[in-house]
Each structure stands twice: as structure tokens, then as C-alpha cells.
Specification:
With about 280 residues, the chain is of the alpha+beta class. It has three domains: about 80 residues, no CATH class; about 80 residues, no CATH class; about 80 residues, no CATH class. About 35% of the residues lie in helices and about 15% in strands. Strands 4, 5, 6, 7, 8 and 10 form a six-stranded mixed sheet that branches. About 10% of the residues have low confidence.
Length: about 280
């Protein structure tokens, strides 16, 4: 099932079932704020933390604008947006749901081993695993995995398959931050191996294949390039960053792929450092 043929029809159907919806424009992102709400002039949603006092009738403020009210969905400000919409999104938290967004095959493999089965929906590159229950939304809780629930939106891609099950503690635990660790001293982007971890690579071809796949993932990113670069760096370091096999030349290849997508050297360095810090390298 797709939302592309009739976004408004899909939105009305979802709203009638208690799922708050909003339109997505080209790029599959929410519509921007209207002139009245631009630059937070309306006083709503400072720092994107809460809806605030704004009661704008237009589909402003992303997830906070999501509604189930059919009168709002067909009102003139929304009708104009639906005519330009390319997809429908919904606010999982507003529907009492949590979406575990699995961005690639590696994340799906992890989920099948670590999470209880529930309703799943195919996405362009991965799957949405949907659970009954809400929690705080978090991005990049592990490589290729985001959690979308309260104060977030997810694209509607159909009803999915499987039985909806309760949100497990395993998913909640993903959002619990580990105690902060000291930030390593700046030293460029060298891996600086500990030399203590057991080498998992067995053959150079295993490492080379991993680096090549990471390059491809960055190169094929069509949106959210910043996030894709960070997640890819995090995935590479989590697998290859502890034993000392990853070379500066291979890291430079990843940086080059990111810069080829418009990232600056500073952005690459920051993403690499943040990934190292998160992994305690």
C-alpha cells in the first residue's frame, strides 16, 4: 500500500482510527512554518521541545501539528498542503506507539536477534518495527537504528504485517545513555587502536569489504547526509575500530566519500570524533 496516490484519503483514514497525521512535502519532510510562525514568532515550540501556545490552523511545527480532526485535515490551509504533499506522516507518540526505525540490513539482522517480534513495515532501505507504548524519541541509539515516538514523526508506508506487541524494555534500554566518558584529545582522524581487542577480521578482505560497503552507503545517501555519515562512521568504528587493523588510508576513503556528498572536512572530523567518543575509543 502506498500513500503517494491519495495522501488526503490516507490521512483521513488514519485520523479516523486515532492516528494523528500530517502531510510531507518533496524531500519527505514536513511543511515549513507559515509567515506568522516563521522564526518562532508565534511563540510555539521553542527549541523544538514542546508545542507551546501556538494554535496556527496551518500544518506548521511538524509533529506538533499532527491531528486526527477531519475538519482540520480538509480545512483550506491543510487542503493546499495536501495538494502538494508527496506522502503522509504520523506522530507515533500521539497514537500510543513507538517506531524502531531500522535503516539497513545490518540493523534488521540485529533487531531479529535482539527484539521481540511485532508489526513490521517495509521502508526504502530497511523496516519499521512498531510497538504499542510510548517513550522519548532518540536518533542513532545504535548504528542504523532510530527510535520515533513522542515529539517525532514517522512516514506512513502502509499497515504492515504481524501482530502489534507491547513496547519491550529492550527498546527502552536503548535510549539510556551510558555514563559520559572523557573526550579524547584531538588528534586528527587516526583510529589510535588500543591493541587489546581481539582482531575479528580474519582476512584483509573482510575489513576491505566493510570499508567498501561504508563508502557505498555514504555515496548513495539521498537525504540526511549528516546523519548518514555519522551512523556510518559509528558502524565502521564499532566493528573495526578497536583492534588496530583500520588504516588511515581507509579512513581517508570514508572522509572522501562524505566530502563527495558535500560534507566539509570539519563536519567529517566532528562526526568521526563523536563516534569515537560514543564508543569510548
Amino acid at each position: 500500500m502506498t500513500t503517494l496516490l491519495s495522501p488526503l484519503h490516507t490521512a483521513l483514514s488514519l485520523g479516523a482510527s486515532g492516528v494523528p497525521v500530517l502531510p510531507l512535502r518533496r524531500g519527505k519532510v514536513p511543511f515549513g512554518n507559515c509567515p506568522t510562525c516563521a522564526d518562532n514568532a508565534c511563540g510555539g515550540r521553542p527549541s523544538m521541545k514542546a508545542p507551546g501556545p501556538c494554535r496556527c490552523p496551518a500544518p506548521c511545527h511538524a509533529w506538533a501539528a499532527a491531528t486526527t480532526d477531519p475538519a482540520v485535515l480538509i480545512s483550506p490551509p491543510w487542503a493546499s498542503a495536501w495538494r502538494r504533499a508527496v506522502a503522509v506522516a504520523y506522530h507515533p507518540g500521539g497514537a500510543g506507539l513507538t517506531v524502531v526505525d531500522l535503516d539497513d540490513a545490518y540493523a534488521i539482522t540485529w533487531a531479529r536477534a535482539a527484539l521481540p517480534a511485532t508489526r513490521t513495515v517495509k521502508t526504502t532501505r530497511g523496516e519499521h518495527w512498531i510497538y504499542r507504548g510510548t517513550m522519548t524519541s532518540h536518533n542513532a541509539v545504535r548504528p542504523g537504528v532510530d527510535i520515533k515516538s513522542t515529539m517525532a514523526y514517522a512516514r506512513y508506508l502502509g499497515p504492515g504485517t504481524g501482530t502489534l506487541t507491547a513496547l519491550p524494555d529492550t527498546v527502552r534500554a536503548l535510549a539510556v545513555k551510558e555514563p559520559s566518558q572523557a573526550r579524547p584529545a584531538p588528534h586528527g582522524y587516526t583510529v589510535a587502536p588500543t591493541g587489546e581487542a581481539e582482531c575479528p577480521h580474519r582476512t584483509p578482505a573482510y575489513l576491505e569489504r566493510g570499508v567498501a560497503m561504508a563508502e557505498q552507503r555514504i555515496t548513495e545517501a539521498r537525504s540526511a547526509v549528516h546523519a548518514t555519515v555519522y551512523r556510518t562512521f559509528l558502524a565502521v568504528l564499532s566493528t573495526h575500530g578497536r583492534c588496530g587493523c583500520l588504516t588511515d588510508l581507509q579512513v581517508a576513503r570514508l572522509f572522501a566519500a562524505a566530502q563527495g556528498k558535500g560534507e566539509t572536512l570539519r563536519h567529517c572530523t566532528d562526526a568521526w570524533t563523536n563516534a569515537r567518543t560514543r564508543l569510548g575509543l
